[in-house]
Specification:
The structure is a homodimer of 368-residue chains. Chain A is 36% helix and 21% strand. The first copy, chain A, is an alpha+beta fold. Chain A has 2 domains: 140 residues, Creatinase/prolidase N-terminal domain (Creatine Amidinohydrolase, Chain A, domain 1, 3-Layer(aba) Sandwich), CATH 3.40.350; 216 residues, Creatine Amidinohydrolase (Alpha-Beta Complex), CATH 3.90.230. In chain A, a hairpin with a 2-residue loop joins strand 10 and strand 11. Chain A is elongated and about 70 Å long. At the A-B interface, helix 5 and helix 8 of A face helix 5 and helix 8 of B.
Amino acid sequence: MTAIQVDRLVRAQALLRRKNIDALLVSQPHNRRYLSGYTAPDHGIQETSGFLLIPGDGQPFLLTDSRFTLQAEAEAPLYRVELYSKGLIKLLERLQKKIGFRALAFESDYFLHSAFLRLADFCAKNRLILRPESGLIEQMRLIKDEDELRLLRQSTALNEQVFQSVHRTIEPGMTEREIALAIELTMREMGAEGPSFDTIVAFGTNAARPHAVPTDRELQAGDLVLIDMGLVFKGYCSDMTRTFVFGKPDQTYIDRHRLVRRAMLAGLGAIRAGVTGAAVDRAARQVLADGGYGNAFGHGLGHGVGIAVHEEPRLSPRWRKQLRAGMVVTVEPGLYLADWGGIRLENMAVVTEQGCEVLNRDTTGLDL
Amino acid sequence: MTAIQVDRLVRAQALLRRKNIDALLVSQPHNRRYLSGYTAPDHGIQETSGFLLIPGDGQPFLLTDSRFTLQAEAEAPLYRVELYSKGLIKLLERLQKKIGFRALAFESDYFLHSAFLRLADFCAKNRLILRPESGLIEQMRLIKDEDELRLLRQSTALNEQVFQSVHRTIEPGMTEREIALAIELTMREMGAEGPSFDTIVAFGTNAARPHAVPTDRELQAGDLVLIDMGLVFKGYCSDMTRTFVFGKPDQTYIDRHRLVRRAMLAGLGAIRAGVTGAAVDRAARQVLADGGYGNAFGHGLGHGVGIAVHEEPRLSPRWRKQLRAGMVVTVEPGLYLADWGGIRLENMAVVTEQGCEVLNRDTTGLDL
């Protein structure tokens, strides 16, 4: 891993120098992991596992507390580990005296307002310039290198293996919770770090909630089943949704399913470098609208996936930036009707110059 | 649940009026759940499941997006659900015109700096007063009512049942990951919502990391085993640590284990309403120092537990406020030696006027 981290550090430091930033305080856990290799997650933003302090050149630091010293030293050999036993500000004060930065930047999108107040006070007292920055490291993460694409392909393949393995065992009387639990257990048994988000298993009308939480509802023949699942494999996330009927689907289901599938294919077909996220969203949304379900699809079409399961770019009406080759996105149109249920189908794809490479192979329930 | 939420809402609105706050924007997920009953968690602060907007009196609102509409309406009947399909600021603009608040407060400890910039801009344009607030609702949550204490007792009892059930199955060759997985599976099978934090299972030297992540290390006879686990039961958390030797402990282990146990008992013995968190921490820390391990205990002695597994109060050298009856805390001294391993023992207790009520009954490995 160290060669990758050296490369990323060098690129990050070059970026800081171009922006006239003397030092960047990295608080976002995925950025922290991406740059340093340090894998400790935050248990919520209020329980940070540490910060990176990256000067424009020279020795970078990993700031943490005694719970994480050994892990930080083992995982992030390029970084010098410093403990903030008397608080972050005291440690920054000491490091500022040592390395002498004047313009300090922090990650505005993952920094609490209350922590900002303390940092602003520290900078005012020491006549330092404090600069909120947004998306610096995230921009580096947008385009996946070959190593990352390999891990994303592996993560997706493993996720499909888990899905297919559990799909075979589904039978009447099983509850949504039981299936979700079996999925998350199988993920770990098959070598995943864990789920990349809370697994969604929803039967019938429960599937009308795009973010349904599994309940004790029991599966009956004829129920539609929506499963949205993803796992983390060596730090990289997968995300896939399948909807199928347990038993024989009626014509209403078949028609609606085919419409959502056409919307997914339209979305995938619209992807290529240079097209905006909004345009891809529109291509899929139009299919649903033309089918008479323009109001039944309330969320965006998709999102970037990498170390984070939800990251930029977004495929949504509001994301007007262009896609670039090497980005990885989900395409997940859905149709939600409170009194009936919901259908969502989701694949992942790598944006290429000419179009996209779909990462998924599983076709369970798709060919209806 | 609604009677509890009415009571909490009434108390929150009285608090706002005392503070001259016209409306409070609640972003912290536990505060959101505590006040409204809406259980959706945040998938990280960058993926909020919604906000409460609570005026000093009258109708409160729950602001979310279309993924959560049905869940919000079902779980939070006191709140009027509003969707921010065009962004939070647009919705706040509309609601401000409707209910006419002038002084808007937000939760500084769970509000991103970048979101604050947008909110500040909105307030400046509309000549509103924007007030960062800290700990308003958290202060309400500090003292648990009888209903909450009942759930915390149940959560602890269930956590112990899970521990004992898995403890019986531990045998040589099992890995840390396998045991952690069995624990989290058993939690769900026995009716928990899930773990309240990532389960720690650490053998031998791995236990020298207070926040060890389970590995594929296999258990051997004579290894020390540290298990730190907690679950969520009906929204309330438990947290317990046990350390034991698989096989026959040597005298070094026995001596160190007894020392940590004495430290835990000293901590529990020091708890009562009116004593500071720092004093309780000191009582336990002194035992370890007197035993010659003053430098081997790097973290605080304990923390509050409720809807959040880590909340105020803190038992730590820096927490100089007094404990009050009805607070619930962990007491978890430890001793960590990189070349040898670690021992941590942790119970939970309710602070009372005269002392404390220990919630734990399990004595596995304690009576050494």
